[in-house]
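Subject: design request, 294 residues
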């Protein structure tokens, strides 16, 4: 993929929504259907339940990358709440979202004034052409098989500038195995978590109340950091930071924003380019941030 010069890095007005990769990959065809129905039943991306505290992610970029304005690519941007908050903080953001309704919501946010800029692309991030190079590529969720992940990671390398990095949220297998069978109501839907122990995948099943025959399920691959390092082999990226996220306390039912890695539902991984002729970082290069308050 050819990168244009830095003239594309500093956009001062939101570009109109672009559409790309409409045909997509048939093997991933379930993705658009799941997220469209999930939002229709719960409003999780475009309604009152949408991401209400994107500042956590803004602070994560400041903490893990630095406070200066960055050229950022967000993959799977949902309704654009995080992308808009990043643009408000002075960053120039390109947000890629597959589901048209969510992309339209993100575009409405992009049309508002921002200190930086926000451009929205409606399309499949396995096929999209993005105006890089980028300082940061963010992916706050995960789908697909190991092969899908490597395919995406290889694309991320092509989008990154020389000193760029990727921030990716990774689900842990130990937490989601423990959550098997947990069910609760969200909006007009019911949601249940199960775990595929053989495939090491969290299964997230949604259906309208009283209509389980209409259920849709997303399947998310879970990785311990050691597993992630294996997936990274041959992609041109290495893991430099593991930052644990939160978890639901079994006793109180309350969500704790920061817990130790051994009990966290996910961790944020910082990935950087391997230098030419470089090797994967040794374990002492991995910084784990434990429970802390922001």
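Subject: RE: design request

Done. Sequence follows.
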């Amino acid at each position: 993929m050819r990168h244009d010069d830095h003239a594309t890095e500093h956009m001062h007005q939101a570009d109109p929504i672009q559409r790309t990769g409409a045909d997509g990959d048939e093997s991933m065809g379930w993705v658009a259907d799941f997220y469209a129905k999930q939002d229709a039943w719960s409003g999780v991306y475009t309604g009152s339940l949408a991401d209400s505290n994107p500042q956590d992610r803004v602070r994560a970029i400041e903490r893990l990358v630095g406070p200066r304005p960055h050229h950022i690519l967000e993959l799977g941007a949902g309704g654009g709440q995080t992308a808009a908050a990043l643009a408000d903080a002075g960053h120039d953001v390109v947000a890629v979202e597959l589901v048209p309704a969510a992309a339209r919501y993100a575009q409405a946010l992009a049309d508002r004034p921002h200190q930086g800029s926000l451009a929205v692309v409606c399309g499949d991030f396995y096929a999209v052409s993005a105006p890089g190079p980028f300082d940061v590529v963010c992916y706050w969720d995960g789908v697909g098989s190991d092969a899908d992940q490597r395919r995406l990671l290889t694309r991320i390398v092509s989008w990154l500038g020389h000193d760029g990095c990727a921030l990716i949220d990774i689900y842990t297998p130990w937490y989601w195995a423990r959550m098997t069978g947990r069910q609760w109501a969200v909006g007009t839907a019911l949601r249940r978590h199960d775990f595929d122990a053989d495939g090491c995948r969290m299964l997230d099943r949604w259906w309208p109340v009283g209509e389980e025959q209409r259920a849709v399920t997303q399947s998310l691959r879970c990785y311990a950091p050691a597993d992630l390092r294996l997936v990274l082999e041959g992609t041109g990226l290495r893991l430099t930071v593991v930052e644990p996220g939160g978890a639901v306390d079994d006793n109180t039912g309350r969500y704790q924003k920061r817990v130790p890695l051994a009990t966290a539902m996910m961790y944020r991984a910082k990935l950087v380019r391997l230098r030419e002729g470089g090797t994967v970082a040794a374990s002492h290069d991995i910084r784990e941030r434990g429970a802390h308050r922001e």
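Helices lie at 30-42, 55-64, 81-88, 100-110, 146-159, 173-178, 225-232.
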